[in-house]
Fold this protein.
Amino acid sequence: MSISSLVALVGNPNAGKSALFNALTGARQKLGNYPGVTVERKMGRLPLDDGQVIDIVDLPGTYSLAPNSPDEEVTRNVILGRQPGERLPDALVIVVDAANLDNHLRFALELIALGLPTVVALNMVDLATRDGLELDAVRLAADLGVPVVPTVAVRKRGLDHLRAEVSRLLPSAAVPIRARPQEQDFAALQREAQRIARRAIVSESPSRRLTGAIDKVALHPVLGLALLLGLLFVMFQAVFSWSEVPLALVEGALAAVEDGVAAALPDSVLRDFLVQGIIAGVGAVIVFLPQILILFFFILMLEGTGYMTRAAFLMDGIMARVGLSGRAFIPLLSSFACAVPGIMATRTIADPKDRLTTILIAPLMTCSARLPVYTLIIGAFIPARTVGWGIGLQGLVLFLLYVAGIVGAFVAALALRRSVTKGGGGGFLMELPKYQMPFVRDIALGLWQRAVIFLKRAGSIIFVTTVILWVLLSYPKPPEGSGYSPIKYSAAGRIAGLIEPVLEPIGFNDEIAIALIPAIAAREVAVAALATAYSIEDAGGDEAKVEQSLSDRLSGRWSLPTALAFLAWFVFAPQCISTIAVTRRETNGWKWPTFMIVYLTVTAYIAAGATFWTATALGL
Amino acid sequence: MRLDKLPQGRPAYVDRIDWTRMSPSEGQRLREFGVCEGASIELLHRGGLFGGGAVAARVGRMTIAMRAGHASAIEVSTEAAASAVRGTSVQASSQAPSPDSALTA
Ligand SMILES: Nc1nc2c(ncn2[C@@H]2O[C@H](COP(=O)(O)OP(=O)(O)OP(=O)(O)O)[C@@H](O)[C@H]2O)c(=O)[nH]1
Ligand SMILES: [Mg+2]
């Protein structure tokens, strides 16, 4: 059989292409109620009713075939067959937002003029109805000259009809793309689009202006900023206060497993390995699952409601001051989840210098992998009391750490824009989508995905690094009765001894030195490493010590200045391997990742040192 | 009147846009949003506690955000004034031959 046909989903940003792609293929592409969610093309398989299975590709949204940023370039290249090694699509599914036809039809007309077999998915008809807009799809199809299928991607409505239209289009032998009509006058297309849109409207009743009403507050210079800060504040309070019950459950389960293993196995290397390496090490990371999910719940809500673009709007003033576009705030907010998708999302930034600066500061935003480190140290050293008005001190400190990252990012941007990434400078032009209440199913699915990713990480990279570390920490063993500390005597202890002189001035001890190196693989490993090290150290001791939790072990050993310096280090901590890899890929070379590692390491060192000495001087 | 000076919530029409006050790609994006001579426009929100902030405007059925600097490059006239000058509808002006050479450039 010949290669299967290829259909491309194309249209304006935020029209619902990825939602449609997911509904058609069962894939789980990321959705979000803001423009620029998809930045790469993504292939999927679409079974049609006539038995054939075709390829379908989800593309980044764009406003026209003249690209403005790297993500839009991908779309142009795929549609015009300029993507190296990619075949031309055999047909297009143009996705348009029913509530915004005037605008979306202009691009649709531009695409239809290419002459490929085409069907238009008139998506989001539910939102159009909410806005009191009734449309005539038949009329629209007649005016456009291509079939039009009303759909509601998120509710899987209209899919059968859409699939049927696609299979009807396909048998037609591949039509060569017509030379792009250069004289396709932009203004003329626009007028045509408006005319067709107006004729497609059956009735229009004045509607509740939900979005406008919310924006009166959300975009207000004072109230809006207060709301943004308030949201972030609640988010970090919740990470602590909502997680108490689930955290206790997970911890209880782990303790039970540990007891079970200890009881079932004789004293042996295997038992040590399981108890100290796996349960103490990997387990110490897994207990943070509830907190990570709470964080992601907030991020998913911000992304799904449409608030992301409002945050970008509010921050534009400050972003302009540090030489960035407000647009850059969206990738930065995404970096709260992980810097890797955050850095990928910078593809939506038009100006190359703007984009590079954003990539370089993205690792300063506290990613979810740093959350276990922060919460562990905060849990061990910051008392769980309130500071009035029901505000928890621990949540407050966590909030301040995030703020420190954001402020650090702004300062870094300011410095970078005046030195290595001078010149250029983007404005801020962005569409503000209508608010939507995210579907419970989407949020639940998103959380489930995050839980799976997190547990997979714990089971793979964190597990492997912890195992290696356990071996290096356990051997060689000090001779019986020599009085050497088993940690100091071990291979890991000796390696750490080499870098310890550099770290000592900023208040770091041996165990921290041991934790920092494997933390480059994944930051959570810092927690696993500390847990394993102290678990080995206490193994020979009395019963009470063996039973101690990691945070008790830490608070008994570290001084407060050391703990604070450790936190300060992690605010700026040089990134994990994946961040470095994605930076290399997005900047096409080693120059910028190297620069990033150096500047962040130096900053982290200075910040940790300053924190340590200030805290010491204050007598903490 | 410039868009950034337009009172909030008063519908207006775009008279003229000074494309030279923005980069070509910004001009293109603005046109792609539907901001062109004759388009109906309304200033919805002003941000910018810290100066230089953004404004949000309605164009057609879309809400867009732009910097005050760009908004000041957009010359608008309010509904009453516009209809006095050029009849009542957008179409009247949009049917005018080649609104601006920059559009097709
Ligand atoms: N109510 C409603 N919401 C929809 C529909 N289709 C998509 N959405 C929502 O609209 C938002 C945008 O959908 P996406 O699928 O991410 O849009 P996209 O076209 O892929 O956007 P980009 O990747 O940014 O180009 C998401 O929040 C979806 O949940 C629909 O038919 N009805
Ligand atoms: Mg998408």
Observations:
- Chain A touches chain B through 46 residues (CB under 8 Å).
- The first strand of chain A starts at residue 6 and ends at 11.
- Chain A has a mean pLDDT of 87.
